[in-house]
Amino acid sequence: MTRPYATRVVASRGFTLIEVLVALLIVAIALTSMSVTMGGMLNNATTLRERTYASWIAQNKIVEYRLSNEIPEVGTSSGEVDYANAVWEWEAEVLETGVENLLRVDVAVGLAGSDAVVRVVTGFVGEPIAPGQSNRAWSTGGARGSDDADGEGSRR
Predict the structure, then answer these.
(1) Residue 2 counted as domain residue
(2) What pLDDT, on a 0 to 100 scale, did the predictor assign at position 29?
């Protein structure tokens, strides 16, 4: 018996051209956004590295002022330093604080040849103290636990 309206079943043989193009478009958009994100992450890593190096250079300059055992003159000084395969410029400004023998030091650091400042670090420098005298102010006169007036008594 033959059917007057016989239906043919068409077997699916794969994706159509339009489906493939839409899938490629989606993949292209995803890869583009991933590459933009990765580029931003690399830029952030470079910026953080530069800020860290600049901070170290500025802190080293403040420590140099402290270790020189001299009160620095109020004013501005500058220089260059080779650090981490780059040349860096620093500018230190020594300012009065209003407290006797205590000065404020602002050190700005940037890459040589660039007007941009990468990092500014502030520190304080005081009057130098003779070696071995740094804790003298804390240990003289009526120290807690002392039995005699000169503070040289035994501790309990």
Answers:
(1) no
(2) 94
Q: What are phi and psi of 78, to 5 degrees?
A: -150, 170
How far, in whole angstroms, is CA 35 from its chain's centroid? 25
Strands (E) located in 35-133: 75-83, 86-96, 102-111, 119-126
pLDDT tens digits, one per residue of 114-134:
999 999 999 999 887 777 666
First to last CA, the chain: 117
Number of domains observed in the structure of the chain: 1
Q: Could you read off the pLDDT of 103-113 as tens digits, one per residue?
A: 999 999 999 99
Task: Report the sign of the C-alpha dihedral through residues 123, 128, 130, 136, in that order.
Answer: negative
Structure token digits, residue 150: 């000169």
Q: Provide the residue range defining the domain that includes 90.
A: 17-129
CATH number at residue 120: 3.30.1300.30
